[in-house]
Each structure stands twice: as structure tokens, then as C-alpha cells.
């Protein structure tokens, strides 16, 4: 595809339910990032994948959050037992690679999550 | 720690007015600095960047100069258009290996005809 795609674009769920958010990075990009955009909080880093290396999970806010990246391509962010404070726009980005810091991150349109 | 502070919005201007959106940063090393823009209904896009002190990033009539002495990276445009209405995010990234982007809270710009 031409850019990073994310699905669903909108997700409304009830408190306590689990949700899965999907990201398809740009083909050939080895680095993938998840960020969260909360009202009044700006964008916060959540997790980073680089190739087959162990992910950097330093930004995940709690153990209810986890992410996988299968086959070095598609990534799924899972939030278990959602809480109202999880309501935010979840953004995925990818770059050609991440370890050198030289390459631009390209962002997807985001998934807006609303927890009722 | 590393952080970015940018002016609160919304910033409301008339078309052809001069724009400044202030951004200052705190970093433990020597970061690269970025401005990202988010147009309504679209994803975040890189607008411009600067990788070292005194560099000037520019794109689409927007400019920002990396000022190490004032730890600032203010965004400017001489004559804004209605189509510039968007949310602008200042961000930094350290240049050593993988480093996450650290964003400011964003500034909404509204340009009226």
C-alpha cells in the first residue's frame, strides 16, 4: 500500500472488554511504532518494534496493554479490560529502520477508541 | 528527562497574517527537532525538521530554526492560508540509536478567510 493503514478507524467498547487494534506498515519498513494521542496529553510513545529484535515496551502504561508484530509486518495492539482512561486515538507509524535514528516515521490515520 | 513545551491554542488568524507557534525543549543530549502537522481527518505528517544547532527547516512556506542557546524551535509562516488550518506538533528525538519521538501537546491553528 501507499501508506500506513490502521483498522478499525473508530472503535466504541464497554468498560472491561478487550480490544484489538491493527496496523499495516509501509511495505519494506522494518521499524514500527505505536503512539497514543489523548485529549490534552499530546502524543505518548507506547512500543517500538525493529525487525526481529525484542520490542521496546517502555511506553506501555500498564500490563493491560500488549502488542505483537507477526512476520515482521502487521502489528496488533491489544488492550485488555479496557478502562475509560484508555479512550484516545492510537497511532501507528513505520520507518525504513529505527536503530540509526535517521529515517522519517510515517504515521497512519489512527484508531479512535472510545470506552463507555 | 526529555520534553517539549509548545504554546496552547487555538491560535486564530485571518488569512495572510503572520504565524508564530512557540516551541521549547528540554533534552539530555543533542536532539533532532521536528514539526508535524495533522490536517482534519488525516494522519500526522512531517512538516519540517532540523538535526543540529542553527539548522533551518523549511517546507510549504513554513520555517523553524534550531536555537540551541534558547532551546527553541519556533514555527513561522509569513502569510497563512485557510488551508493551513490544522494541529501542529513540535517534537524531538535524540540522535543515538532508537529513540522515541517526544511530542508537545499540539497547537490548533484556525485561519479564517
Radius of gyration of chain B: 14 Å
* Helix segment tally of chain B: 0
Q: Write down how many β-strands of chain A occur, each being a DSSP E stretch of 2 or more residues.
A: 10
Compute the separation of the termini of chain B in Å.
41 Å
Range of helix content of chain B: under 10%
Unreliable runs of chain A: none
Low-confidence stretches of chain B: none
Shape category of chain B? globular
Question: What's the total number of strands of chain B?
Answer: 12
- Major sheet summary line of chain B: 6 strands, mixed
Quickly list its features:
heterodimer, A: mainly beta, 6-stranded mixed beta sheet, 4-stranded antiparallel beta sheet, 47% strand, B: mainly beta
Structural features, described:
With 116 residues, chain A is mainly beta. Helices cover 0% and strands 47% of the residues of chain A. Chain A has no helices and 10 strands. Chain B has 113 residues and is an all-beta fold. The interface between A and B is medium-sized, with 27 and 24 residues.
Amino acid at each position: 500500500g501507499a501508506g500506513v493503514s490502521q483498522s478499525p478507524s473508530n472503535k466504541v467498547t464497554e468498560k472491561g472488554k478487550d480490544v484489538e487494534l491493527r496496523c499495516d506498515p509501509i511495505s519494506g519498513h522494518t521499524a514500527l511504532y505505536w503512539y497514543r494521542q489523548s485529549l490534552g496529553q499530546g502524543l505518548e510513545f507506547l512500543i517500538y518494534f525493529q525487525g526481529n529484535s525484542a520490542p521496546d515496551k517502555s511506553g506501555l502504561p500498564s500490563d493491560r496493554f500488549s502488542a505483537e508484530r507477526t512476520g515482521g509486518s502487521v502489528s496488533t495492539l491489544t488492550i485488555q479490560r479496557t478502562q475509560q482512561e484508555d479512550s484516545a486515538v492510537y497511532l501507528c507509524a513505520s520507518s525504513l529502520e529505527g536503530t540509526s535514528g535517521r529515517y522519517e516515521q510515517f504515521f497512519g490515520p489512527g484508531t479512535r477508541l472510545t470506552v463507555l | 528527562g526529555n520534553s517539549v513545551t509548545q504554546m496552547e491554542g487555538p491560535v486564530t488568524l485571518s488569512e495572510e497574517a503572520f504565524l508564530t507557534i512557540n516551541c521549547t525543549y528540554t533534552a539530555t543530549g543533542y536532539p533532532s527537532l521536528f514539526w508535524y502537522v495533522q490536517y482534519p481527518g488525516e494522519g500526522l505528517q512531517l512538516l519540517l525538521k532540523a538535526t543540529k544547532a542553527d539548522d533551518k527547516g523549511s517546507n510549504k512556506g513554513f520555517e523553524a530554526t534550531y536555537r540551541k542557546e534558547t532551546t527553541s524551535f519556533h514555527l513561522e509562516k509569513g502569510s497563512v492560508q485557510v488551508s493551513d488550518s490544522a494541529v501542529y506538533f513540535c517534537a524531538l528525538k535524540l540522535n543515538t540509536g532508537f529513540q522515541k519521538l517526544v511530542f508537545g501537546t499540539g497547537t490548533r491553528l484556525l485561519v479564517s478567510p
